[in-house]
Write a structure and sequence with these properties.
The chain has 366 residues and is α+β, with helices and mostly antiparallel strands. The protein has three domains: 82 residues; 99 residues, Alpha-Beta Plaits (2-Layer Sandwich), CATH 3.30.70.3160; 149 residues. It contains 13 helices and 13 strands. The strands form three sheets. Strands 1, 2, 3, 4, 5, 6, 7, 12 and 13 form a nine-stranded mixed beta sheet that branches. A hairpin with a 2-residue loop joins strand 5 and strand 6. The longest helix has 26 residues. The two termini are 33 Å apart.
């Protein structure tokens, strides 16, 4: 059976192509802080979470802001550099999210405190003996509240049953940006050491989905105060050409990771087009792996960057990714007129890819 292609308007720019089912529900769904909830799942036993330890564990609840912003605001309250606060994953901006952040106990200005800032709260819930590791991340639990969709409960259950273990493990839209889907383009410029291309894309290139003041600022080439990273790079580059990685550090690496994710999405689409989802290997290496250079070479060459796979590993390292998404513990229930859809995904898997299957073109992202 042929698979549907390009089920959402952002698919092409993100390297996403195939859906696992033709079915969907004809209801608009827009993720936001009141309709989309994310809770991080950790192996607390393996972390040895308790009443004492070198690192404090804080439960961070944020609404409508990204993880970088929440950590930066928390760091300001703690009076520590943001780099002294550790976390195991980035959580959606268009959501209410609950995740864990970690800081050395000696850096806390008060013990057992509750910290509040614009869009977030954080409180100490315990301590661990050593620095956290991504091996402690089990995944995430997601809750979707779909307004006026209670009548589709059975249909959603049937779709989840049909697609479970068959959804391609694409990196989701937020990995690339929604109103400005270009993090992978910026990453490509970093990898190719194209500093001028990076500057033009980051500072001067407007996208239709951006707010009016930001759009105009890009046309004039003078970033606003709210454009934190653009202003940082703009101020440094005005004094000479500087590699983005030297100015933006972890953010520039995030762009490279986005480019690696884009190449992965393209490779996954190519393999599905050739053999379907049933013949996919269980896992695929990411572009940073030496063993993967041949797999990605033709795709990167078509992007005008044949050498990129061999360079990416120097920024982000090597790992393998499961090729399909498995949906754990799904629960679908009607509450009044609304439909509540809950499920868990493993580390690195994107709820937006499951939303894409459920809603297709009716998924509204902004």
């Amino acid at each position: 059976m042929s698979l549907p292609r390009f089920c959402h308007r952002l698919d092409r720019i993100c390297g996403i192509e195939y859906c696992a089912t033709w079915s969907s529900i004809p209801v608009l769904y827009k993720p936001g802080p009141r309709s989309f909830y994310v809770r991080e799942l950790l192996d607390e036993q393996a972390m040895r979470l308790g009443d004492s330890g070198e690192y404090a564990v804080l439960l961070l609840v944020k609404r409508g802001i990204d993880t970088f912003t929440a950590v930066r605001r928390l760091a300001r309250l703690l009076r520590v550099p943001p780099g002294n606060i550790y976390y195991l994953g980035l959580k959606d901006r268009a959501a209410t999210t609950i995740q864990h952040v970690f800081v050395k106990k000696t850096l806390l200005r008060r013990s057992g405190g509750l910290y509040r800032g614009p869009g977030f709260t954080a409180r100490v819930i315990g301590y661990i003996p050593s620095k956290p590791s991504k091996k402690h991340l089990i995944g995430n639990r997601f809750t979707l509240i779909v307004a006026r969709a209670a009548g589709y409960r059975r249909r959603v259950e049937e779709i989840i049953e049909e697609i479970n273990g068959r959804v391609p493990s694409y990196y989701g839209y937020q990995r690339f940006g929604v109103s400005r889907p270009n993090t992978h383009i910026l990453g490509k410029h970093v990898v190719l050491a194209d500093h001028i291309g990076f500057y033009e894309e980051m500072v001067n290139t407007p996208y239709p989905g951006e707010p009016g003041p930001v759009y105009r600022a890009r046309i004039t080439g003078r970033p606003l105060e709210s454009q934190i990273y653009e202003r940082r790079y703009y101020s440094r580059v005005s004094r000479g050409s500087i590699p983005p990685i030297h100015v933006l550090g972890p953010v520039a690496r995030l762009y490279v990771e986005a480019y690696a994710a884009y190449l992965y999405n393209r490779l996954l689409s190519m393999l599905i087009g050739a053999t379907g989802t049933e013949a996919l290997p269980p896992r695929l290496p990411m572009p940073g792996c030496p063993s993967a250079h041949e797999k990605y070479r033709d795709i990167a060459a078509a992007e005008g960057a044949p050498e990129a796979p061999g360079i990416i590993g120097g920024y982000v390292g090597c790992w393998e990714r499961e090729t399909v998404i498995r949906i754990h513990d799904p629960v679908v229930r009607a509450v009044g007129d609304n439909l509540i859809v809950e499920f868990s995904l493993g580390p690195g898997m994107y709820a937006s890819i499951i939303m894409r299957e459920l809603f297709k073109e009716h998924l509204v992202l902004s």
